[in-house]
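Thread: manganese (II) ion complex, take 2
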Amino acid sequence: MELFYDKKTGWDKLDKKACMDYAEGYKAFLDAGKTERDAVSYIAAQAESKGYKEWKRGMDVKAGDKLYQINRHKGIILTHVGKASLSEGLRLTAAHLDAPRVDIRTVPLYEQEGMAYFKTHYYGGIKKYQWLAIPLELRGVVCVCKDGKITRVPVHVGDKPNDPKFVITDLLPHLGSDQMSKKATDIIKAENMNILIGSIPSENAKEDEKDKIKRAIMEYLHENYENMTEADFLSAELSCVPAYNACDIGFDRSFIGAYGHDDHVCSYPAATAMFDLTETPEHTAMCLLVDKEETGSDGVTGMQSHHFDTFVADLCRAQNVLPEECLENSICLSADVCNAFDPNFPEVSEARNDARVGCGMAIIKYTGSRGKGGTSDATAELMARVRCILDDAGVVWQTGQLGRVDQGGGGTVAKFLANRNIDTVDAGVPVLSMHAPFETISKLDLYMTHLGFHAFYRA
Ligand code: MN
Ligand code: MN
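Output below.
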């Protein structure tokens, strides 16, 4: 009988090769799916290859069916229909596919002092100075409108070996003494986070024309992106994300460094654990991958959207079940990252309760800030159920929290699910340097989170 609780490393308790192999698949997903649109395409293609069919309203819903539905290119729901009626509830995971980044504005293009730029508006909680002087790539979509016809044009620049990349420049230290004495939030003003995109004037410009470089950029875009014009930026979603791929960190390769672990590191195990179900689960397993978590889960593709409710109601109608009853009997793992205890910054943590790298999947009873403000705070009863599921399956797991009390805090999609009368608790992977353009996670924690979700779907 173990009388004490302690977080322990899990490296002695796992199949190292399976863990390392699993990480390779995850790294490929990170590189391909840096934006929510790209991540949705990647997951949908995987789902198709695993026998999932795109859900259409009015379809039958019977045990063993594997269905997916895409929400406006930016979110996806995977469903594996269980043996029990939907009235007995779902085994639901909910993660997000958006990540902090630098978005291109609606009227972005200008030139100044012999250089052309895009204006930006950052997305999510970033330390702005971390995005200076690093290579950036451009991803997204332009919806070109011409003569009443709309053409969706995907944009990917900087992700292929010979592609150009982009950058936000920083000040040289020689002239940086004023800058270095500023507060970190003021090192670069958001209005000055402009992306360098070119400097060669157009040969077609008139002698007295003011914006010759801007003209050259527009000529290039017009030629390469379905005759787009400057007005088509109004109907575009373009983002700059770091232009480097995921890599192993450490002599022992025990970590992965990459852009976008938050929350790809939970989305990927949540989805692949669905794909790995070899038998029809007892309860219907569902994996919800949403957008807009980093800006508060608002909007039509965020967790507060009724898209999820409509989908559940559609499924329930097919089985003659009341959707409210289905939700009431569901349990949910809000699959999101937490901070990993960092010995370089011990002052913001509380070592007993913060999650540690290499100690497995982290279960977080509550998030929030200033006296648990804004948290759904999972019930003791749900915590007990999740503990039993994970222990029975031999999953290495631990508790986590968001740092010292009154140090800061944050939230996840958990409360939006709990508000719908679903028993919900946060679960996911501890992250070092969260929200930086290069975050670090432990492969063990990734793999254990995958095993944890797999056990949860089968429960
Ligand atoms: Mn997150
Ligand atoms: Mn986040």
